[in-house]
Amino acid sequence: MALVCALTNEVPETPVVSPHSGAVFEKRVIEKYLLENGCDPISGKELKPEELIEIKTPAVVKPKPPSATSIPAT
């Protein structure tokens, strides 16, 4: 199962979860949203940035470009 941000629909680099809705967000995106709106975008309940729960995940390893993984011509 992959974590996907409820706002951007992308895999978050720094995932956090809302205690009100249980939705996963990219930390920087939800913090900006909270500054502008002050509520959980899913449940509509008031939410403060310090209430967000950080999800501990292993570091994302970006795949090598195909040229770095191909077998050289012999």
Automatic annotation (TrEMBL):
CDD domains: RING-Ubox_PRP19. Pathway: Protein modification; protein ubiquitination. GO terms for cellular component: cytoplasm; Prp19 complex; U2-type catalytic step 1 spliceosome. Signal peptide: none annotated. Coiled coil: none annotated. It is found in: Nucleus. The keyword Transmembrane helix does not apply. The keyword Chloroplast does not apply. Belongs to the WD repeat PRP19 family. Ubiquitin-protein ligase which is mainly involved pre-mRNA splicing and DNA repair. Required for pre-mRNA splicing as component of the spliceosome. This is Pre-mRNA-processing factor 19.
